[in-house]
Each structure stands twice: as structure tokens, then as C-alpha cells.
Amino acid sequence: xxxxxxxxxxxxxxxxxxxxxxxxxxxxxxxxxxxxxxxxxxxxxxxxxxxxxxxxxxxxxxxxxxxxxxxxxxxxxxxxxxxxxxxxxxxxxxxxxxxxxxxxxxxxxxxxxxxxxxxxxxxxxxxxxxxxxxxxxxxxxxxxxxxxxxxxxxxxxxxxxxxxxxxxxxxxxxxxxxxxxxxxxxxxxxxxxxxxxxxxxxxxxxxxxxxxxxxxxxxxxxxxxxxxxxxxxxxxxxxxxxxxxxxxxxxxxxxxxxxxxxxxxxxxxxxxxxxxxxxxxxxxxxxxxxxxxxxxxxxxxxxxxxxxxxxxxxxxxxxxxxxxxxxxxxxxxxxxxxxxxxxxxxxxxxxxxxxxxxxxxxxxxxxxxxxxxxxxxxxxxxxxxxxxxxxxxxxxxxxxxxxxxxxxxxxxxxxxxxxxxxxxxxxxx
Amino acid sequence: xxxxxxxxxxxxxxxxxxxxxxxxxxxxxxxxxxxxxxxxxxxxxxxxxxxxxxxxxxxxxxxxxxxxxxxxxxxxxxxxxxxxxxxxxxxxxxxxxxxxxxxxxxxxxxxxxxxxxxxxxxxxxxxxxxxxxxxxxxxxxxxxxxxxxxxxxxxxxxxxxxxxxxxxxxxxxxxxxxxxxxxxxxxxxxxxxxxxxxxxxxxxxxxxxxxxxxxxxxxxxxxxxxxxxxxxxxxxxxxxxxxxxxxxxxxxxxxxxxxxxxxxxxxxxxxxxxxxxxxxxxxxxxxxxxxxxxxxxxxxxxxxxxxxxxxxxxxxxxxxxxxxxxxxxxxxxxxxxxxxxxxxxxxxxxxxxxxxxxxxxxxxxxxxxxxxxxxxxxxxxxxxxxxxxxxxxxxxxxxxxxxxxxxxxxxxxxxxxxxxxxxxxxxxx
Lengths: 429, 429
Known about the structure:
The structure is a homodimer. By secondary structure, the first copy, chain A, is α/β, with parallel strands linked by helices. The first copy, chain A, has helices at 62-72, 81-86, 88-96, 109-130, 134-140, 143-147, 161-170, 175-185, 201-213, 227-241, 257-267, 296-304, 320-334, 347-363, 406-412, 418-426, and strands at 6-15, 35-43, 50-57, 187-195, 218-222, 246-250, 272-276, 371-373, 387-388, 391-392.
């Protein structure tokens, strides 16, 4: 049983200066500092447990998300955790439909990222109180309770609560076996660590060699800034990994629709499994494949329009577990494989819970499915991901793996942490 | 010629406690405090002119938009105004595509509202320096220069720069006559002031009577919260205005798609000209008609999908004049009449410039066209709208009519202005 009254909600601006090494660079984000608006939730329960929530940002603007978390805080403070999770749909609706705040969204951009950070903290705390990793909390929940966490507003034309329950009910069979399978083999992953756009060819080769040695068989490369550059880099990687292994490409919204068609025709010879974010994330009709949408309404239409072949959920862009549940269920209904987006700060830690739950309780399949992996910044987390033979092993610690090490939060706090004070002083700021 | 280097950019949180009188209330926004993130732009030019920009918000969250304006400020400070407007497309792209900040958008929600506020201030300043009201600055600009203000990224599949120029070029003929027509007759308006959702029937009747006396022939009513209530209120208004006058309805995103269909079937007897925002603003495929989109990519698809019969631009939700230009031109290409959204704080003041320009230089037609009008808060503006026989008369003062009275800004500043200090003290805050 969830317990305690929320007595404190704080949000902290934590930034890692990843731009110094061109880590995470792509055609649209040339110098990201991987960052997070880090939420801590405290209650008056005697267990002393705290919930931690993150949302992922790229440096500048994290302070804007922190500001939005504070604006949403009155909806959380002084509430009983039992009342929150007992009517999780109502609580979700309350956060996303504040009659004044929804104007600056709704359910997109800054406020939605802030909503995700808060809800991620709630889920972390709930799972900790139940003594279970989040994926297990979800797997053990009965279909009716799980569905009651979802806000079906704006998606009831393609997925009703009854359909959601049916899907979950049908998959009760075989759950035990799939859970056992996950615990021994883990969930298949692919790596994006080798081929950020700002990496030199030498570095790319070296990282690729290491990844192959480490057992990786699926690779993603960033493209979209310069055609000749892309041809050379994709050729180089395809040569190194050979014709059998899997290659994905990601243009990070760089192109117009005609440009995307032209560019991909040229890169087709390297046999990409998919092209990710060819154009604006808002452009449903212009998409042949897309990812990282900002809410369930956009995903709904991409599915309706048959505009994607792979669906990439994001644990921090969507409204936490609640909204991801609705997207996983819609993907199941439309028969589209889910291959989550990860990387950043903590996205791997969080999304592994969702995709493992998806396999056990929703999709019941690994066909054409894999979860992104990036080998960065895990050292700052108290319960970092565990990769074995290019697979995610299910976390065993209670919670949503969102908690960061206290010293990391302190050191990388912006602008007052040690790391930033030194960096900013060096830049004369 | 634009002149001066930007030396100062400030953003101010100004809120009007409109919720006390249920002004502006609708099915989703039950208690809005009409507010604005108010931007002031100063340069070192000797003319001493300042640019003022607003974006419209509903109270809570205005501080988040102010925070985002500050995050964008480094892109504006120390720039020459001549360089900014001399490469306006480039400047627009820079603001909307900051490699770190775009993550918390892109081009939607908080950052896009902040972008609009800043760009509105730039346009106001430019027009003031040219000594022209904004609509006239636009009307006098040659097609090539006008097009160079537009970022065609993500819309080039339906509108190219060449096409934009052609549309503008073709309309050079007859411009003088249309300008003269505007100056004498003004642009037709409709009123939303009579029928906010929170108004009593008596109040509604009284306001409707007054509006009829004032010469209004087109009325909009808020619907969507309660069916019986809607039937009664719509019936009451239709009775008062008679069968010939025009009635529009607005559900403010309240419904799911099936709900919208059911609800509108019931309200059809009152012969609405349109139903506005029946469902989520992101739901292109679910729409038969929609409004107030957050960027040009959404509008592009609504036009492509033939999902709207009337297009309602917003001067502060879209990325200022620049992005509105692209939407006006796309609407022209698809033959869809533009009927702007207005009201709020200052939206009437701003959007009149755009729609008057549209008539003179783009649409060249008044068929099925009218601009929303709400009779609120104009007293806080230095150059308030002028309505004559239910028409907007073209503003004659230089600028974008964005400038507010200094004393209003001071008095309504949140939380330190006189009005708020008293109100918050009364609420024990």
C-alpha cells in the first residue's frame, strides 16, 4: 500500500558538460550538455523513502523545466501518496489539465517534461514502497488497475479502456515464462555510442571495433548534416560490421520532406533498418517513419496513418509511465514493434523497466524489437543498468532506477556545483 | 533602415485577475487570469525607441515563459537590429533552433510562446523605426523581402519560397484599392464577449442585447462542459440574434473524437458556422475543424488533410509575424479563409495588423472572413483597437500596437504589483 503525505518536492538543475567531447552530437544538436531536471519527493511516512524523478534536457533550458516543476508543485504537495496512485488517472489529468497551466502546453514541451519528471518520482517512490523494481510492480498489477493509470482522453477513438484490459488480460498466459526469460537473457539492445556526428572517423572505427568485441550486433549512426560525410561514415560502419549486422540511421529532424526522400535514396545502399526523425516531429503526414513524439495524441495518429514501422517511446518526453502505457497498448493493437529511445541521462535506466514490462505483459514478442543503449553517464546513478551480451538485464532493486548519487547531483548542479564553477570561471563567466 | 544595437531585453510577468469575473471562461479553462509575458527591447540608437512584445498566457505559468525569454535573450542581446531584420529568416531559425534549447520545444509550448514575445518586440521596434503601423510596413514590403522573413523548413513540400513570392506578386494588382477600403470600412469582426461559459443566462442576455444594439451580427459561444447547459444557452442566443445572424461555437479541446461528433449532432439545430477546437490541438486526423495550432507544421497538415474549413491564426501562439506569414500564404494556396483568434490580452491589438495585411496583400477577399473580437483589457494598451460598426479600423500609430501603459504594467505585475499584493494578502498568501 502506498503511504505518506507529500511534504516536500524539490527540483534541481543538473548538467553534464558532454559537449566538451562531442558526445551526443547530431545534425540538429551539435553541442548538447546532457542534463536533467531532477525531482525529489519526500513524504511524512516513517519508512523515510524518497522518490526521484528525472526528465532529460540538453543543457540550456533546464532551468525553464525546473521553473515549470515548481509551478506544478501545488498539485502534489500535501497529497497522500495513496490518494495519488489510488486515482492515478485523475492525478495525471489534474497535472496535465491545470486550467491555467495547460495553456503553455498542453501536454507538450516544457510543461510536459516537467510533468514527466514529477510523475517519474511518484512511480519511483511507489515502487520503492512496494519493494519492487518498477517493471515488476507493473507486471504484477491486475489489468483493471493498470488501465486505471491511463488517461484515455483524446485516444478513445482508437483505444478504449475495455480494449486495454482485454489486451492485458489475454497476455496473462505465458507471463511467468516470459519473466523467467527476461531474468536469464535480458532484453535485446542496440548501441548508439559509436557514431555521434561530431566523432572523427578514427574514433568511430575504434569505438566500433570495441563494440564488436563486446558482442554488439546492432548499431545506430547519426546522419543529416552533410551528404558526403554521411556516405563516407555509413560506408565505413557498414564495412566494419559486415552485411549481416543491423544498422539504423537517425537524422534528428534535420530535413524537409523532399530532402528526406532524396537523402535516404542515396543512403539506401548501406541498408538501414530504419531512418529515425527524418523531419519535424509534428509532421505526421510527411512521415514514413518517426520517433520521440511528445504525446499519445501524436503517436495515435502515426499509428492510424501507418506512418511508422517502428515506434520509439521515450520515458521522459511522454508523461511518465502513465502515458507510455497508453502508447505501448496502442502499438500492440496496431501490431507495430516498440524500440525505445534511450541514452541521454538516465533514459536507459528508466526505459528498460517499460520495455521489459512490455515484453512480459503486452507485446509478448521480441520480433523486430530492441532497445537503444548508450554507454554514458551511468556512473552517476545509484542503480545503473546492467548490460550482458548486448542485452538489458532486468533491474532487481526496488524503484524506477531514477535515483542519482548524491555527490553527482552536488558536483554537477548548475551553475553552483564544483564542475560548473570551474568551467564557467575558465570561460570567464 | 533598422538601426541600433540591442542593449537590453527584459521580460515582465503581468497578470489581470479576470477569473474573479469569469471573463474568458470556457470548458477547459474555467478560471483564467489573462496574462502576458511582456518583453521590452532597447537599443543604443539615438531615437530612443523601444520595442514591446507580448505573448498571451492564462496566469500560472507566466513565470515559466518569462524564464524561457531570459534563456533566449543571449541570441538577441548585442545584435544590430539591422542585422536581425536584414536576415530575418536566419534570426528566426537561430531562435527556434538553438541546439540545446530546441529540445524543450521544439517550436511549441513555452519556448515558442517566448520566441513569439521576443519577435513581436522586434517587429514593433522595426515598425516604429520605419514610422509605420506594422500592417503598413508589411503591405509596403516587396514580395522578395517579405518571403525572406519566413522559415520554410518543414513546409517546403507544400509551399516554396518561389510560390510565396508568386502569390504576393500576383496580388500587387488592386492593393491600393483594398488599402483604401480597409481605411474607410475596416475589417469585419465577430464578438466572443457575450457568452463565456461562466456567465449566467441573465448576463448573457444582457450582453447580447447590448451587442445587437452596437451593430454586431456575428457571435461566438463557448460550449462543451455540459450538454443540457449548451442546448439551453445556444438556444437562448439563437433566439435573441434570430435565424439570419451568424453563430460560432468553441469547445476549447474538451472532447474526444466520438464525443465531438455526438455533441455537435445535438447542437446542429442552432446552425453554428463552425465548431472550434473540438478535441486535442495535436489531433490532425481526428479533426473536422480546428484552430489555434502551435506551429506552421501542424497548420500545413490540417490544410493537406483538408481537416479545416476555417483557419484561425494566433498572433502570439505562432512564432510572431514571421510564422504567421507562412500560414497566411499556405491558407491562400489551399483556398481556406483565415478568421484569426483574438481576445486575451492584446491579441486583438496584434492580430488586426496581420489580417488587414492579409486582405490587402494575400487573400484579397472578405468572403467568409472575419476576425474575432473580445471587449476586454484594451484600456491597458497605449494604442488600443478601434472598432467601428463591428469592424476593425486599421491602426495609424507606428508599431505593432503591442505597447502597454506603463502604469498598467506596474500595477498588474505579478506578484509585486499593487493589485496582486492586495489580492494575495486577501487570500492569506
